[in-house]
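Thread: sanity check for a docking pose with pyridoxal-5'-phosphate

Original post by kr_44:
Hi all, I'm comparing my docking run against an independent structure prediction. Below are the sequence and the ligand SMILES. Could someone generate the full complex and paste the structure tokens? I mainly care about where the ligand ends up relative to the chain.
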Amino acid sequence: MSGFPYEEQFGVNRTLPENGMEQDAVLSMLSAMSSAENPVWEGGQCSGTMYCGDHDHYDFLNLAFSQFSYVNSLQRDMCPSATKCEAEIIAMTLDLLGASNVKDTTPVGLVTSGGSGSIAHAVLAYREHHPTSGRPNIIKPETAHPAFSKAGHLFGVEMKIAPVDPTTTQVELEWVKANIDENTIALIGSACNYGYGTVDPIGELGALALEHHVGLHVDGCLGGFILPFGRELGYDIEPFDFSVPGVTSISADTHKYGYALKGTSVLCFADQALRNDQYFYLTDWSGGKYCSPGMDGSRSGGLLAATWAAMVHLGHEGYLRYAKEIFATSATMQAAVREHPSLRLMGKPTFLFSFTSDEFDIYLVNDFLRTRGWRLNGQQYPNALHMAVTRPQTQPGVVERWKTDLADAVAYATKHKDELPKSGAIYGGVEGGPSEAVRRHHQILHGRHDGQAVLHPLVMRRRDRALSQHRLRHRWTEGWSRHARRARSSLYEVHHVATHYSEDGGATQDADRVVDAHHRCDEATSRDVEYSR
Ligand SMILES: Cc1ncc(COP(=O)(O)O)c(C=O)c1O
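Reply from moderator J.T.:
Ran it for you. Here is the predicted complex with pyridoxal-5'-phosphate included:
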């Protein structure tokens, strides 16, 4: 046996089955796999990732999804419902994030495929909106999500990494200020960051952004749909939304605390012009005039329907009720951490908290907690563990288990403090420094993708197989940067094509016509949000 998932129960498909399987058989295999996997998080001992955790809610979203799962929302003439759902998702998100405070520009949004998608579109928009003489750069706190670095890598934007204060875990403003230069196009702040659940000083970042005429993107991928409710409940969370002068865009993931299905996020812009600068047009293609509002081409209407369904079903009262339970649970779990003098909470956490120890390696605590079924997220520099509290933790009994298991884990770590921990997680504790860690991560990715996901047909000739394995290996090592360079230059090319055509009368008309469809979405959006202008 190769260790390939479910090989023993269901075998491995290396080619299309000669004769198709009955629907019932297919569904029963899928059901067996999901039943085997759900208990990992259902008990409430898994950090983050499952935000709602309520199977009735998922069933409801799946029904909503099924109405339009096969519809391509790119073909808007066939599905006005997609325009309704998308426009209302954007309007509701803009409203939640304080867009009514925007006075001089028109706030708009974009529904993307997830947090990384929203961040990538934001980086692209800033690059297009702020032409620079040299290589553009963005200043991001070290704690901001890797998706910014990934987007910078793809779009040729340098990420300047601002250090954070080790006690508060917030970005060091003096460093940001000293490092803004003529090629800086935007600053980043998180509300909140993935690692510590802390919120950067958005007000001060906004003031810097205004002073230097650069953008400020607030990463609310994780917090965008829960922090506003935390503030409403009276938790001490600084303003981070469009009410803060200088904030020009905010990402907020519907597929996290928006309690929608996986695959959507909302990217909100204070100014329509900023969003529109990353639109893509190819008006002289032989296949027809092509325009898409973001990087995706075809998108499932089902995801828009399910996201919309989650939002209108829960409503303000539902989101507030869930936030109340989550914040209260997180506060109780944090209090349990504070009871142990050998543990130290990092900064001023929110619904997500992180802790470390100055007395032993915190991964010893993790080693023990794993034996009791807990799945926390591992961090490094310093080693720390984080718990993103979601609805599954709010179930009766989970907090009590946390208190008992944490106490036992601290006793274990104290007793074994001279030993090396077994866990280190993918983010932490890889021996041998950064280059060794990179090598290990390549191995992990190789194992996951080439070793498992790529199953070569048994019939493949050996020579072909060797060749294709060589190609895959190549792609995963040096090849990646070549790919990125090619992607980058083709995007620049696209940019130039668009600019060229917008200077040329004939094609401008085409481009205008194509963009009309998206404007319809904007109109619907602004109809639904009452801007006080
Ligand atoms: C703060 C923050 N930003 C961005 C992301 C990226 O989101 P996604 O995994 O949906 O691409 C995450 C994911 O956890 C996050 O926590």
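Residues 427-433, 457-511, 526-533 have pLDDT under 50 and may be disordered. Hope that helps with the comparison, let us know if your pose agrees.
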